[in-house]
Design goal:
The chain is globular and about 75 Å long. The protein folds into three domains: about 10-70 and about 85-175 and about 250-280 and about 720-745, Aconitase, domain 3 (2-Layer Sandwich), CATH 3.30.499; about 300-480, Aconitase, domain 3 (2-Layer Sandwich), CATH 3.30.499.10; about 525-710, Aconitase, domain 4, CATH 3.20.19.10. The chain is α/β, with parallel strands linked by helices. About 30% of the residues lie in helices and about 15% in strands. The strands form six sheets. It has a seven-stranded mixed beta sheet with strand order 23-22-21-20-24-25-26. A five-stranded parallel beta sheet has the order 5-4-3-6-7, with helices on both faces. Helix 2 (about 45-50) crosses helix 6 and helix 13 (about 365-375) runs parallel beside helix 16 (about 465-470). The structure holds 3-isopropylmalic acid (IPM) and iron/sulfur cluster (SF4). InterPro entries: 3-IsopropMal_deHydase_lsu, 3-IsopropMal_deHydase_ssu, 3-IsopropMal_deHydtase_ssu/lsu, Acnase/IPM_dHydase_lsu_aba_1/3, Acoase/IPM_deHydtase_lsu_aba, Aconitase/3IPM_dehydase_swvl, Aconitase_4Fe-4S_BS, Aconitase_4Fe-4S_dom. Its EC number is 4.2.1.33.
Length: about 775
C-alpha cells in the first residue's frame, strides 16, 4: 500500500522481502533466485534429476557454470586442448566432462578450462559482474556467502536444491535471524580482513551465527576494499551463519564499473541500479537478534592452532591446552585437536615449523591477496625447510593480471610455484595435497582434520602471514618480516606431489571399487535410483538402534571425505561414511573403537550427537547420501550446520534439533546402552524401546508434511508457476539489469528474456504498475 508505515528493516530484510514469490502462514517462503553459479562437483546429480523428469533450466540467462574444484589440475594449461586429454584422473575427468555435456544440453554459459575467465566460482562471479548488489545468489557450495560482500543475499545449497533452482529459479526457505557484527576503528599495520574474520570466529564460535545472516558493518569494514570484504563474507559460513552481508556503498559501485555483466556505466539501467543499490542499507532503528561489537585495536595478526576455524590464537600467543577451556565439549575437542595437530600446549606459535605454504582459495586468491603476499616475499627466499610454497590464483584473469604486474616473477624468484587457477590445496582433491603429518600455512578457510590431505595439518591465516611463514620456515609474525611497510591497500583494485596421495585411497581403481561396487553399498537405498522428482519414501515412525557420538562440530568433510565427491551418482557412499574415522589409514582395516564398527551400531538407523553443530562446513549433499546409504535416517543433535540440515530433509531424512540437554542425555543413554529407540514424526515424539516417552521435538510444518507424505518439493513448486512468472515480470520491470538481456547484448551466450505480463503488487507493498521507490 502506498504510504503504509513500514518497520525499520535490516539490509537482509530488504533483500529477502524483494525476492518473496510466495509466503505460507507457517513462514515457509518461496524465494526467487537472481544468480545461480554451478560447478562440476555438486551439479551432476541435479542435471540428472532434470533429465529424468524431462525438465528444463528455467533461467539459463541467470546461470553461470565453471569447473574449479578438486578435479582441476593447477599445472600449466599451455597445451590444453580438451578436458578429455588434459585431466588424467578418470573420475575427475568424468565429472568435468559431465558438466560440459550438461551445459551444452541445457544451454548454459560456461567458463571451461580453456577459457581465461575460468576460476573458482566465488572469484569469477564478482569478477564478471555476475554478482550484483541486492540480488539473491546461490551455488552448490558453502562459500557462496562470499558474494554477500556486495549486499547480495548469497548462500550455499545442496545438490537437491541446485536441481530445484535449475528447474524453478526459486528456493524454499525460511527467514533467518538478523545478526550484526560491527567492527570499528582503524586496523593496525599487518592486520587484514582475514585477521578480522578469524578474530570474529574466535569470539562467536563456529556455531555463533547458526540460523542467522550476519551483517558486517562499522568503520573498519567500510574502510575495506571489495576484495577484503569478500574474504570476510566468505568465512561467515565458518561462523555457522546462513550468509554474511555488507551494505553496498561507493566502494561497491566503483568495483562494479565496467564489469562485463554489470549494467553499462552511465546507462539508464546503471543509474536506476546504483540508486537501488545505495538504498540497500539497514534502516535507522532496525532490530538485530544478536549484536557483536569489536574494536579493531583488539585485533592483531591471527592464525588457527587446531582443527576448527574457531581454534584461533594471536600470532604472539602460545598453543592452548584443555585447561584454557571451561566447557567440557571444548576441553575434549582441544585434546583431540592437539593430538591431531601434533602440538603441545604452551608452545609459542612462532616456534612451529611449516612444511608447506598454500596461498590460494576462494577466501584469499584475488589480485589484492597476491599483491600483499608479493610485498612480503619480494627480494627474499623461501626457507629451505619449506618443501613447497604454492601460489594458486583464483581465476585465469587474476593470474593474467598478476603476471602483467610481474608478481609471478617475484614469487618464482623466491622459490614459490606459480600455478593455474582452481581450488587446489584448499580441498586437497587434485594432486595438490599434504602428506600425512605435514604442516601447512594456508590462506584457505577450513582446517578440519584431513582437509588438505589425510593426516595433514592446516593453520589458517592471511596471505601476508602465509608469505611470511614461507620466508621464515615457521609460523611467523608478518610485522617482523616486513617491518613497517604498508602491506594492505585501501580501495578496490581492478582487476607435483605424488598423485592421489591419500593414505587411505591408493588409486582411482580403489576409489571406483569403493563407489561402484554394489557389495560396498550398505544396502540401504538413498533416493538415488529414485530421482528427487519421483517423490520420496514416506517418513512416519522409525525404530532402531541409535549410534552415540560425543563430538562437537562434526563437519561434512569428516562425514564424507573429499575423495568420495568425484562420483556423479547419489548411491554407494555408505562404505565411505566417516571414512577417516572408521578405517585405519595404514591397513584399511576397521578401527574397532569407532562406534559404527561396533554392534549393534552397524545396524544404526539413528545417530545421536551430544555435541553441537553437527554437519557444519561444506554443502556436500554426499554427507546425507552416505548416512542414508549406511542406513541412518535420522540425526539428533543440539544444533546443525544449516546446509546439512536442509540437505537431510531433501533426501527424506529427519534431523532433530534437541536443545533440551536433559532430554538429549536420556536419548544418548538409550543409545549407549544399545537399546532401540523410536522416532515418531507424526506425533513428534521420541520413545524408548518400551514405548516410554524420552522427548518431544519440533519440526517445521512444511517439511514435516513433505516427509510424512513423501512429497517432492520441485513438483510442488512447479505448481506455483504463475506466481513465479508474475514475479519475473515485476523483476523485468523494476530490475531490468538482472535479465540476461543485457548479458546477450554483450555477447553472452544462452537464451533469455522472459516475456513480460502485467502483474500485481511487489513484495514491498507497492501497487500494480507503480514503480518501486528507493
Ligand atoms: C565441494 C563443495 C560441496 C564444498 C563446499 O560446499 O564447501 C567445497 O567447496 C568445500 O570447500 O568443502
Ligand atoms: S572453500 Fe576451497 S574447495 Fe571450497 S570453493 Fe573455496 S576454494 Fe574451492
Amino acid at each position: 500500500m502506498p504510504g503504509a508505515v513500514r518497520l525499520p528493516q535490516t539490509l537482509y530484510d530488504k533483500v529477502f522481502c524483494d525476492h518473496i514469490v510466495d509466503e505460507k502462514d507457517d513462514g515457509t517462503v518461496l524465494l526467487y533466485i537472481d544468480r545461480h553459479l554451478v560447478h562440476e562437483v555438486t551439479s551432476p546429480q541435479a542435471f540428472e534429476g532434470l533429465r529424468n523428469a524431462n525438465r528444463k533450466v528455467r533461467r539459463p540467462d541467470c546461470t553461470l557454470a565453471t569447473t574449479d574444484h578438486q578435479n582441476v589440475p593447477t599445472t600449466s594449461r599451455q597445451n590444453f586442448k580438451s578436458i578429455e586429454s588434459f585431466v588424467d584422473e578418470a573420475d575427475s575427468r568424468t565429472q568435468c566432462m559431465t558438466l560440459e555435456d550438461n551445459v551444452k544440453e541445457f544451454g548454459l554459459t560456461y567458463f571451461g578450462l580453456g577459457d581465461k575467465r575460468q576460476g573458482i566460482v566465488h572469484i569469477i562471479g564478482p569478477e564478471q559482474g555476475f554478482t550484483l548488489p541486492g540480488t539473491t545468489v546461490v551455488c552448490g557450495d558453502s562459500h557462496t556467502s562470499t558474494h554477500g560482500a556486495f549486499g547480495a543475499l548469497a548462500f550455499g545449497i545442496g545438490t537437491s536444491e541446485v536441481e530445484h533452482v535449475l528447474a524453478t529459479q526459486t528456493i524454499i526457505t525460511n527467514r533467518s535471524k538478523n545478526m550484526r557484527v560491527q567492527v570499528d576503528g582503524e586496523l593496525a599495520p599487518g592486520v587484514s580482513s582475514k585477521d578480522i574474520i578469524l578474530h570474529v570466529i574466535g569470539i562467536i564460535g563456529t556455531a555463533g551465527g547458526t540460523g542467522a545472516v550476519i551483517e558486517f558493518c562499522g568503520s573498519a569494514i567500510r574502510g575495506l576494499s571489495m576484495e577484503a570484504r569478500m574474504s570476510i563474507c566468505n568465512m561467515s559460513i565458518e561462523a555457522g551463519a546462513r550468509a554474511g552481508m555488507i551494505a553496498p556503498d561507493e566502494t561497491t559501485i566503483e568495483y562494479l564499473k565496467g564489469r562485463p555483466l554489470a549494467p553499462e556505466v552511465d546507462s539508464a539501467e546503471w543509474k536506476k541500479a546504483t540508486a537501488y543499490w545505495l538504498s540497500l542499507r539497514s534502516d535507522e532503528g532496525a532490530k538485530y537478534d544478536i549484536d557483536v561489537f569489536i574494536d579493531s585495536k583488539d585485533i592483531i595478526p591471527t592464525i588457527t592452532w587446531g582443527t576448527s576455524p574457531q581454534d584461533v590464537v594471536q600470532i604472539t600467543g602460545v598453543v592452548p591446552g584443555p585447561e584454557d577451556f571451561t566447557d567440557e565439549d571444548k576441553k575434549r575437542a582441544c585434546v583431540r585437536a592437539l593430538e591431531y595437530m601434533g602440538l603441545t600446549a604452551g608452545t609459542p606459535m612462532q616456534d612451529i615449523p611449516v612444511d608447506k605454504v598454500f596461498i590460494g582459495s576462494c577466501t584469499n586468491a584475488r589480485i589484492e591477496d597476491l599483491r600483499q603476499a608479493a610485498r612480503v616475499v619480494k627480494g627474499k627466499k623461501k626457507a629451505p625447510n619449506v618443501k613447497r610454497a604454492m601460489i594458486v590464483p583464483g581465476s585465469g584473469l587474476v593470474k593474467k593480471q598478476a603476471e602483467a604486474e610481474g608478481l609471478d616473477q617475484i614469487f618464482i624468484d623466491a622459490g614459490f610455484e606459480w600455478r593455474e587457477a582452481g581450488c587446489s590445496m584448499c580441498l586437497g582433491m587434485n594432486p595438490d595435497i599434504l602428506a600425512p603429518q605435514e604442516r601447512c600455512a594456508s590462506t584457505s578457510n577450513r582446517n578440519f582434520e584431513g582437509r588438505q590431505g589425510a593426516g595433514g595439518r592446516t593453520h589458517l591465516m592471511s596471505p601476508a602471514m602465509a608469505a611470511a611463514a614461507a620466508i621464515v620456515g615457521k609460523l611467523a609474525d608478518v610485522r617482523k618480516v616486513t617491518g613497517p611497510t604498508q602491506i594492505y591497500e585501501k580501495g578496490s583494485p581492478k582487476v607435483s606431489v605424488a598423485p592421489a596421495h591419500q593414505a587411505d585411497i591408493e588409486s582411482d581403481e580403489d576409489l571406483d571399487k569403493l563407489l561402484d561396487d554394489p557389495e560396498n553399498s550398505q544396502g540401504n537405498t538413498v533416493q538415488s535410483g529414485a530421482p528427487s522428482t519421483g517423490g520420496m519414501p514416506k517418513f512416519t515412525q522409525l525404530r532402531g538402534y541409535a549410534a552415540p557420538m560425543d563430538i562437537a562440530n562434526v563437519d561434512t568433510d569428516a562425514i564424507i571425505p573429499k575423495q568420495f565427491l568425484k562420483t556423479i551418482k547419489r548411491s554407494g557412499l555408505g562404505s565411505a561414511l566417516f571414512h577417516a574415522w572408521r578405517y585405519d589409514p595404514a591397513t584399511g582395516d576397521e578401527k574397532p573403537d569407532f562406534v559404527l564398527n561396533k554392534e549393534p551400531y552397524r545396524q544404526a538407523k539413528v545417530l545421536v550427537s551430544t555435541g553441537p553443530n553437527f554437519g557444519c562446513g561444506s554443502s556436500r549433499e554426499h554427507a546425507p547420501w552416505a548416512l542414508l546409504d549406511f542406513g541412518i535416517w535420522c540425526v539428533i543433535a543440539p544444533s546443525f550446520g544449516d546446509i546439512f540440515f536442509n540437505n537431510t530433509f531433501k533426501n527424506g531424512m529427519l534431523p532433530i534439533v534437541m536443545r533440551d540437554a536433559a532430554a538429549l542425555e536420556r536419548i544418548a543413554a538409550e543409545a549407549r546402552a544399545g537399546r532401540e529407540i523410536e522416532v515418531d514424526l507424526p506425533a513428534q515424539v521420541i520413545r524408548d524401546a518400551e514405548g516410554k516417552e524420552l522427548a518431544k521435538f519440533d519440526v517445521d510444518g512444511f517439511r514435516k508434511d513433505c516427509l510424512v507424505n513423501g512429497l517432492d518439493d520441485i513438483g510442488l513448486t512447479m505448481k506455483l508457476d504463475s506466481k513465479i512468472a508474475s514475479f519475473e515480470t515485476r523483476r523485468t520491470r523494476d530490475f531490468p539489469w538482472l535479465d540476461g538481456s543485457g548479458y546477450l547484448k554483450r555477447d553472452r551466450s544462452g537464451p533469455v528474456k522472459v516475456a513480460a505480463v502485467p502483474v500485481p503488487k511487489t513484495n514491498r507493498g507497492q501497487e500494480i504498475g507503480e514503480p518501486l521507490e528507493w
